[in-house]
Amino acid sequence: MTAAAALLVLTGCASTAQTYERVTVVEGGDGLALLCIDGATETEPPACSADNPAILAWDWIGLDHREAGGVRWGQFRIVGEQFGDMFMMVEPPSNAG
C-alpha cells in the first residue's frame, strides 16, 4: 500500500464520536435505554422524550443508578455515535463525576 493510499484509508476512518460528560440515561418498562440528549424531567423517576436515541446494547451492570416504579436512570459519561434513532457507544459508559 502506498503512503497516499494509507492516508486515504486512515482519513476515511476518522471518528465522528460524540462525548457526553454528564448525560441522563433512562430505561422504562419497554427495555430501551434512552440517551436524554435534550434533557430529562426533574420528576422522580425522570423521563425524556421518545425523540431521543435508544442506546444499543445498554447494560446497567457495574454502573451506579437509581430505580423506582419500574424505571432505571443515572447520569453517565458516554462516548459514541448516533445513527438515526439509535446511539452506538464506542467506549464503555462510566458514572459521571
Give a summary of the structure in a few sentences.
The protein is mainly beta. The chain has one helix at residues 3-12; strands at residues 18-27, 33-35, 54-55, 66-68, 71-83, 86-89, 94-95. Mean pLDDT is 87; it is low at 1-11.
Question: Please, could you describe this protein's structure?
Answer:
- The chain has one domain.
- With about 100 residues, the chain is mainly beta.
- The protein contains 1 helix and 7 strands.
- The protein is globular.
- It is about 10% helix and about 40% strand.
- Strands 1, 2, 3, 4, 5, 6 and 7 form a 7-stranded mixed β-sheet that branches.
Keywords:
97 residues; mainly beta; seven-stranded mixed sheet; 1 helix; 7 strands; disordered N terminus
In helices, the fraction of residues equals 10-25%
How many structural units, i.e. domains?
1
The quaternary organization reads as single chain
Average predicted local confidence, pLDDT: 87
Q: Which regions have little confidence, pLDDT < 50, spanning 5+ residues?
A: 1-11
Kindly state the number of beta strands. 7
Span of the ends, CA to CA: 44 Å
Q: What is the structural class? A: mainly beta
**Strand content range:** 35-45%
Q: Summarize the helix and strand pattern as letters.
A: HEEEEEEE
The dominant shape is: globular
Largest sheet: 7 strands, mixed
List the SSEs and their pairings:
Blueprint: H1 3-12, E1 18-27, E2 33-35, E3 54-55, E4 66-68, E5 71-83, E6 86-89, E7 94-95
Parallel strand pairs: 3-6
Antiparallel strand pairs: 1-2, 1-5, 4-5, 5-6, 5-7
